[in-house]
Design brief:
The complex is a heterodimer of chains A (291) and B (576). Helices cover 64% and strands 6% of the residues of chain A. Chain A is built from 8 helices and 3 strands; from the N terminus they run H-H-H-H-H-E-H-E-E-H-H. A 3-stranded antiparallel beta sheet of chain A has the order 1-3-2, with helices on one face. In chain B, helix 4 packs parallel to helix 14 and helix 7 runs antiparallel to helix 8. Chains A and B meet through helix 2 and helix 7 of A and helix 7 and helix 8 of B. Bound molecules: protoporphyrin IX containing FE (HEM) and copper (II) ion. Copper (II) ion binds next to helix 9 of chain B.
Chain lengths: 291, 576
């Protein structure tokens, strides 16, 4: 079930949307597209402030990020990633259908994309809600009753008692070092010149000592949650705006406003949605995976 | 035989009866206009109003500082003094915010840029007229919010909003920030609009390197506006959330880092000083060749130095943070880059001088402003280099030397450039001439006013007087009084200017199409231009060169320049 618009009518449509200060519809389309790209670059810059804050705090306080990241619900984040990826696909298809003048295809794809956006918001909203119940919040509101794995919360980080372990060098040592990292904080390990073979820092055939502190809550965990809410909140706001814009597109597409000669809004909002998707593809690993 | 550079026919009769000002006189046709020329005029009116408010606040500041203990705000006992000085803080904060965000940043792109950009390009309008109108209203909305915050509880943080004080002060910081946020978006949209216009709306024949240099200045400015403003946007939002929700990113009490705020703020606000100065430099690049009757010297150097300033300008923000614990390595890098950014500015200055060299200089008002710019901006820029050197910065940071520096570049650079441009394009905008003698007097007054106000500030600063103080040691009084007298001179100049400009609007002699003999396209249409800018779309010939004046001759009958038509030597070789 496809609908194509006759060439004559297409031409009318294109002319009707041509503003007086452009010479050709193509010039107008190009201008719109360049404008949208510039706008999207400002969006990226808006997020870049937050990415920068993330990088700075991560560099200054890695322990906060390693600790707090474990609170987040990875499967739900992963599900959201898949949802957004799919909606990116349906949006791209929508643009294609608009170019081809296939109205039903366009309408269906827009509808699916909207569903994706709403699904994302729903799942994310649920995640916010559980975080809220557990008081995993920003600033002074941060007050969870238990640690990331359900354990009791140790008092604010203290470096004692330290366990001192002696590890073999080489690849085996590397593996046991990583294993240790999951049990607690590695406070220091004896400096060893880079090995001829094997991962750097651990010479094969030599033993070295590692000082380990138990997992306790580091100071200022709330900073992680401030950044988490800011980044995901700003992103969710963009998803919401995208959903609203696509609802408007859906309405216009249903009415038959678009044709191969005139589909600028679909194209531009498609670009927007692409950027919104892409930002999430960075947020997900940074917040949920990188402990 | 060469083709005429621009073959726009005068078609004067139809334009005299109908121009962009007269074609629809209803109020709503102004408030909702999509015409870039009218939006330019709206910007002009609003930003001049903002400048008036900011200027009156400056007069309050200078009057306060006439005597060491403060003439207006002072008090006996700690509590009274605290309250009085807090008022002083509020006054200079508001002065700074209004001048930076509502005057210096929007005034040239918003008023003059909007008006002449499409005309110079030979286009009918900017790429997105609706967005343009929205930018204007965002600007007005933001300004209204900012001023409303003042009525509710005037902010006392200084225009820099440094945390943690801006988190704790009980004044209405959030409303103020939202206002500035809106103005920021207005600035982004203006920049975006201009970039797209310059890329996509150049008519055939108008290649990049045939554009007048003002457009290069605006283009470079727009890049900064688009690339830097979002960062301050998110910073201001974070500061709002800091106050509303206590997110703690910038609050040391919650583990946050106040220096991060400074980094974010200056990452925008240093490039923002180039948002202010680049368009003014563009104006000077137009005025100097026209009034020297000589081709601009080093066109591509001037064009490219604008881009260089825009790009290097992003890498020097750390020079505002030399004494806040930044590492020595960073200090050195930022200092080096600061020196580097002065180079393209100097390139421009030398090119202007070379343009004037052996030119037939006409000392009309716009040219007087251009000369004032050259002197004042150069002093201001060089004091910037002094501040950029690490050893001197440690002594001079947060003293009146910094105040003197940035006022010389902002008043002596941006505002002088703007007013020069206003006088240059005034006949085109309103179709009337102004009284040349009074205008020259005002310019001289303003020049001396600015010099007398800000040069003594450099001296007291070098002698150790800190900035932002409501009172001072008696040893500084002579300089402070001189500075205040300079400020009153500036006030007098502005009053005089208002007088003859208003007179010009009502009574001024009708302006010819090309009163100064400019070679760019805006001088080939009527003054004021018709609604569609050109009666016939300009045809830009192969030899078009906006800085070639040889095909123009002065016609005393109409008091302006006309194309000689015959023996058109355009493109037969450049002067420089
Ligand atoms: C020619 C190159 C310039 C150089 C090398 C330069 C250098 C500097 C330096 C190093 C400072 C920091 C002083 C301190 O706080 O210790 C400074 C402050 C400042 N400059 Fe410049 N500057 C230049 C041009 C400009 C221009 C063109 C403008 C504006 C139109 C400008 C506006 C400002 C402002 C507003 C401040 C003070 C900000 C504040 O602390 O409130 N500068 N400049
Ligand atoms: Cu700076």
């Amino acid at each position: 079930m496809t609908e194509t618009v006759s060439i004559g009518k297409q031409h009318d449509l294109a002319q009707r949307h041509l503003a007086h200060h452009f010479d050709t519809p193509q010039q107008q389309f190009d201008a719109g597209k360049l404008g949208m790209w510039l706008f999207l670059s400002t969006e990226l810059l808006l997020f870049s402030g937050l990415f920068c804050a993330y990088a700075v705090y991560r560099a200054l306080h890695p322990e906060i990020f390693r600790y707090a990241g474990q609170y987040l619900d990875m499967p739900s984040g992963l599900a959201n990633t898949l949802i957004l990826l799919t909606s990116g696909l349906t949006m791209a298809l929508a643009v294609r259908f608009a170019q081809l003048g296939r109205r039903i295809g366009l309408v269906v794809c827009l509808f699916l994309t909207i569903c994706g956006g709403l699904g994302f918001l729903g799942l994310h909203g649920y995640e916010y809600f559980t975080n809220y119940r557990e008081k995993l919040l920003w600033g002074l509101n941060y007050n969870p009753s238990h640690g990331p794995h359900g354990q009791a919360i140790a008092p604010i980080r203290s470096l004692t008692p330290l366990t001192v372990r002696s590890l073999p060098g080489g690849v085996g040592g590397w593996a046991s070092l990583k294993a240790l990292g999951r049990q607690g904080f590695i406070v220091s390990h004896s400096a060893i010149a880079p090995a001829a073979s094997g991962p750097p820092g651990i010479a094969a055939g030599q033993r070295h000592t590692v000082r380990l502190a138990p997992y306790a809550q580091p100071a200022n965990v709330q900073l992680f949650f401030s950044i988490y809410y800011l980044m995901t909140g700003l992103h969710s706001l963009h998803v919401l705006i995208g959903v609203i814009l696509m609802t408007w597109l859906l309405f216009r597409a249903w009415r038959g406003d678009f044709s191969p000669r005139y589909y600028t809004p679909v194209d531009l909002i498609g670009l927007y949605w692409g950027i919104v998707d892409m930002i999430w593809m960075f947020l997900f690993p940074l917040l949920y995976l990188l402990h | 035989m060469t083709t005429a550079a621009v073959t726009t026919l005068p078609a004067r009769r139809s334009q005299v009866t109908d121009n962009y000002l007269t074609q629809d006189r209803r109020l709503r046709s102004w408030l909702f206009t999509l015409d870039h020329k009218r939006i330019g005029v709206l910007y002009l009116a609003t930003s001049l109003l903002a400048m008036l408010i900011g200027g009156l606040l400056a007069m309050v500041i200078r009057t306060q500082l006439l005597v060491p203990q403060g003439l207006i705000f002072h008090g006996h006992g700690n509590a009274a003094a605290y309250a009085a000085y807090k008022h002083y803080n509020q006054i200079f904060t508001l002065h700074g915010i209004i001048m930076v965000f509502m005057v210096l940043i929007p005034i040239i792109p918003g008023a003059l840029g909007n008006f002449v950009l499409p005309l110079m390009l030979g286009a009918k309008d900017v790429a997105f007229p609706r967005l343009n109108l929205m930018s204007f209203w965002l600007y007005v909305g933001g300004a209204v919010l900012a001023i409303a915050s003042t009525v509710a509880g005037a902010v006392d943080t200084g225009w820099t909003f440094y945390t943690p004080f801006s988190i704790h002060t009980e004044t209405y910081v959030v409303v103020m920030l939202l206002g500035i946020f809106l103005i920021g978006f207005s600035s982004i949209f203006t920049g975006l609009n201009f970039i797209v216009t310059i890329h996509k709306l150049r008519p055939p024949g108008m290649t990049w390197f045939r554009m007048p240099l003002f457009l290069w200045g605006i283009y470079a400015t727009s890049i900064i506006q688009v690339a830097a403003t979002p960062v301050v946007g998110v910073t201001l939002v974070l500061l709002c959330l800091e106050r509303i929700m206590g997110i703690g990113i910038f609050n040391p009490a919650l583990g946050g880092n106040p220096v991060l705020f400074q980094d974010f703020f200056w990452f925008y606000s240093h490039p923002a000083v180039y948002i202010m100065i680049l368009p003014a430099m563009g104006i000077i690049s137009e005025i100097v060749p026209v009034f020297s009757r000589k081709h601009i010297f080093g066109y591509s150097f001037i064009a490219m130095s604008s881009l260089a300033i825009a790009l290097i300008g992003f890498l020097v923000w750390g020079h505002h943070m030399f004494v806040n614990g930044q590492s020595a390595e960073l200090d050195a890098i930022f200092s080096f880059l600061t020196f580097l950014v002065a180079v393209p500015s100097a390139v421009k200055v030398f090119n202007w001088l070379a343009t004037m060299y052996k030119g037939a200089i006409v000392l009309d008002t716009p040219m007087l402003y251009a000369l004032s710019f050259l002197i004042l901006f150069t002093i201001g820029g060089l004091t910037g280099v002094i501040l950029g050197a690490l050893a001197t910065n440690v002594v001079l940071h947060d003293t009146y030397f910094v105040v003197g520096h940035f006022h010389l570049v902002m008043m002596g650079g941006t505002i002088i450039g703007f007013i020069g441009g206003l006088h240059y394009w005034w006949p085109k905008m309103f179709g009337r001439m102004y009284n040349e003698t009074l205008a020259r007097i005002a310019c001289v007054l303003l020049f001396f006013g600015i010099a007398i106000t800000f040069v003594p500030q450099l001296i007291v600063g070098a002698e150790g007087m800190p900035r932002r103080y409501a009172h001072y040691l008696p040893m500084y009084q002579p300089y402070m009084v001189a500075s205040s007298i300079g400020a009153y001179l500036q006030l007098a100049a502005f009053i005089l200017m208002t007088g003859y400009l208003v007179h010009s609007l009502v009574r001024g002699r009708k302006a010819p199409m090309n009163p100064w003999g400019g070679g760019s396209l805006e001088w080939t249409t009527a003054s004021p231009p018709p609604h569609d800018n050109f009666a016939h779309p300009p045809v830009i010939g192969e030899n078009y060169d906006p800085y070639d004046y040889r095909h123009l001759a002065y016609d005393p009958k109409i008091g302006g320049y006309v194309p000689t038509g015959i023996g058109d030597t355009c493109g037969a070789g450049k002067y420089s």
